[in-house]
Amino acid sequence: MIELKIDNQTVEANEGETVLQAALRSGIEIPHFCYHPCLSVAGNCRICLVKVDGRPKLVPSCNLPVAPGMTVETDTEDVRAARRAVMQFITLNHPGDCGICDKAGECRLQDYHVRYGEEESHSREPKHHRPKFSDLSPRIVLDNERCLLCSRCVRFTREVSGSHQLGIVERGSHARVERLEGRPFDDPYSDNVIGLCPTGALLSRDFLYKSRVWYLEPVRSVCTGCARCCSVNVWRRQREWHVRALGAELNRAAYRVTPFENPAINGPWLCNKGFDLHRRMARKRALTPLIGGREATAEEAVQEAKRLFAAAGNPAVLAFAPASNEELAAFRDGLGRRVQVYTREDYHTEPGEVAEDDFLIRGDKNPASYSIRALFGNRPYAPAARHDLVVIWGERVDYHALGGAKLIHLASFEPAGETAADLLIPVSTTFERSGTFTNFEGKVNRFEKVFDKPAQVLHAGDLFGRLVP
Amino acid sequence: MKKEYWNKPALGLRERLYLLEVIRGLCITGGVFLGNMWKWLTFRKGALTAYYPEEIRSDYSPANRGRHVLTRRENGGVQCVSCNMCATVCPAYAIEILSAADFDDPCHPKSPERFEIDYSRCIFCGFCVEACPEDAIRMVKEVPDFPGFDRDAMWAGRDLLMNWRPTGDPAKQYPAASPSPVEVQP
After folding, report:
1. Start-end ranges of CATH 3.10.20.740 in chain A?
2. Cβ-defined contact of A246 to B118 (cutoff 8 Å)
3. Distance from C-alpha of B107 to C-alpha of A299, rounded to nearest angstrom
């Protein structure tokens, strides 16, 4: 432990920490653009300059290791003057188009400009223009004018994702972020640079101009893309900003997905499949119960399921992949002991998708397979057992492979096949309930309800107790 | 104790008698009524009342905040950049904007695909005009066709706000004016 003084406050820091880290940890705010706790120190933005006793010039605190007895001041007049000057330089060629920038509202540059900058630019030269709105990749829009060359995105591809696909080319006011020559920016973690960017230079093509960020609020959820079960924030419209004329479906839409910092599982990162979680959830839902292809109410569907169960001699259940731990427990207690349970994997690696790597992406694409295996083992469906009723709890099932048994399908999304099950009961998605998943390492991760479930949709966990005759 | 007000009326005998004052008031209203009636019967202009909506009053204050208009660029496109400042500042949550991206026009990449104002909620405070960084939304003094029987029918969309042409605005030229209602001089 090293003791130092920051702003007349005694702060304890670990050996090897920097002044900026020690200050942030003890609640002293030092502005920073290029510093990020998970990336190396670049020290190129110079906004974190502080005054250190005994040194003639101001020092960048992100690159200053703590030393015993050090006295640091972060809010003196010359530090403030230096920050104002640095902001003048950083915003020298910044277009100032916050009105049409998606980052506005969560932009570090905007916040610091209000807090530490000056109202007017001292420069009387016309602003230098650089390429605007080029496609860095099909997922990311790059606006070089807004870029302040902090190199966070470049360091991300070098140090975290390891793809080395970005770099800064040219010099002076021509310097810009660029891909490797002739190579696409197809890093499977590329969308992280959007959140890393301290300004609006890198923007998500999917979220582009969908909504201003202050209309939205994040809800903690879990990505169901693979067995890692990363924590994510799902952004929905705030209650007071619900729209009326533009269509009520916007109020029930997940606008974007960003990583939720969870050091135990995913840190502050997420793969592109996780960033696309809301698009997978926006597939066509199964919304009405169907009894033999005929629309019915949820109550009629439950009665029909009861009847089928009472008539069945040898029922079986194919257990689902994205079922939360609570649902699986309800299933085991309500139904699991009376029927033969088979497990299956609904999702497999799709063409063009990264199968597995040593960072976040897992080969097993089913979020609940750890819990299912712990409860029921690994038992694939055996047609030889001659079941006369099969409950399918999941999706992507080939009905023909189940023989001539009666079928009850609990599905969140509309089943793809041409033939209908004898009974289709729509169940809620992970966005419509709260619960927990256990990832492949046995770590439990919590998710919260983002939207209310549609009227005729049932929570699978409530259903099982009612199915038993 | 009964509270004494600073502006407590001092009533003379005339006011106390009450009936005389009532007759005086009736004379004023009756005079206006008969004057209006006479002008109406003889087809003269200048009645104190106007036949809304066929006639609208022309003596709104120039500072009156009436219906919104969306201004246009020189090329006829909408001036609005869909920054949502008006919708954000609106205390009645009356403005809803759906944005569209068009990177072929790098000077104007963001524009409103839909721009909806709910006149059943609008309180005509003018904050939207003040908040607009582009002078894209204004309120003109005229207030046409606000009443309705259905709240859902009281939304004004982008086309209405862009194409509705009030008579004359010295600061910014609008494309050719459409025939406007008759203005009456009281």
Report:
1. 2-90
2. no
3. 56
Contact B101 A99 (CB under 8 A): no
Tokens 């609020």 map to which residue?
A217
Q: What pLDDT, in 10s, does the model give residues A2-35? A: 999 999 999 999 999 999 999 999 999 999 999 9
Please name the member of B88, B100, B114 whose beta carbon is closest to the beta carbon of A246: B114
Contact between B63 and B134 under an 8 Å Cβ cutoff? The reply is no
Structural domains of chain B, ranges and CATH numbers in brackets: 12-49 (no CATH), 60-174 (3.30.70.3270)
Residue in the structure block whose two tokens are 């277009």? A95
Please give the biggest Cα pair distance in chain A: 89
Q: What is the pLDDT of residues A141-183, one digit of tens each?
A: 999 999 999 999 999 999 999 999 999 999 988 899 999 888 9
Tell me the C-alpha distance between A280 and A261, whole Å. Answer: 22
State whether A100 and B110 contact (CB < 8 Å). Answer: yes
For residues B113-125, one letter each, b for 16 or more C-beta atoms within 10 angstroms of the residue's C-beta and e for the rest, the string is ebbbbbbebbebe
Q: Between 3.30.530.20, 3.20.20.10, 3.10.20.740, 3.40.50.970, what CATH number should domain A2-90 receive?
A: 3.10.20.740
- Residue A422 is encoded by which pair of tokens? 């004898």
β-pairing, A406-411 vs A423-426, is parallel
| ipTM value > 0.90 | no
- Please report how the helices A298-311 and A460-467 are oriented relative to each other, as an axis angle in degrees rounded to 10: 40
| Contact call for residues B172 and B73 (beta carbons, < 8 A) | no
Pull the structure tokens for residue B46.
């200048």
A243: contact with B, CB 8 A cutoff: yes
The H-or-E segment that residue A237 falls in is strand A231-237
Asked whether the predicted pLDDT for residue B147 surpasses 70, the reply is yes
Q: What fold, for A290-467?
A: Rossmann fold (3.40.50)
Q: Write the Ramachandran bin of A246: left for phi over 0, alpha for psi from -120 to 50, otherwise beta.
A: alpha
Give A194-246 pLDDT, tens digit per residue.
999 999 999 999 999 999 999 999 999 999 999 999 999 999 999 999 999 99
For residue A240, give the nearest of B93, B100, B118 by CB distance.
B93
Interface of B with A (CB under 8 A): 81-85, 88, 93, 96, 98-101, 103, 106, 109-110, 114, 116, 118, 133-134, 155
Contact A435, A327 (CB under 8 A): yes
Distance CA A348, CA A342 (A): 18
